[in-house]
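G., the chain you wanted modeled:
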Amino acid sequence: MILPIYTYGQSVLRKETEEIDGNYENIGQLIRDMFETLRNADGVGLAAPQVGLPIRLMVVDLDIISDDMPEFKGYLKAYINPYIEEIGDETSTFEEGCLSFPGIHEKVVRPSRVRVSWMDESFQQHDEWFEGFPARVMQHEIDHLNGKCFIDRMSPLRRQMNKKALNSIAAGKFDCDYKVKTLKK
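Predicted structure as tokens:
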């Protein structure tokens, strides 16, 4: 089932999420629904707060970019209770967007390499270093789980320059090709 993606202005996007365990009801179905939602919106990552749930769960689908980057063929993973444990010394700048901020794309500086701990769908523990684009996606989605959004990583000037667009999103005045839940005034 395709879930609505919560857009800028929804309070759930600013809440720190709670860990879940194997007793979380219908976790398998939720993960499948999140993947379907992500695929429908042509995104690469989706965190639970973006579908209205304040839990530490995210899905990543890099298969969508595998035509240009074949090393990501078949890369579809769910991450339960992920945390960034360590960051590398080098940074990179890359233009990011976010399904919760339709139409806004800005350059964001992030570490090029991060070590992440998480559990898979079977609640088996993992710990791995991510580099390059996967590291960026992990950081972007884990930010959501920590109540942060990519606009928080913009320079104050760029954020000010996007103020009108942000206000339009908060007011529900934007166009996108996927199902959303906007803030009702």
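The mean pLDDT is 96.

Shout if anything looks off.
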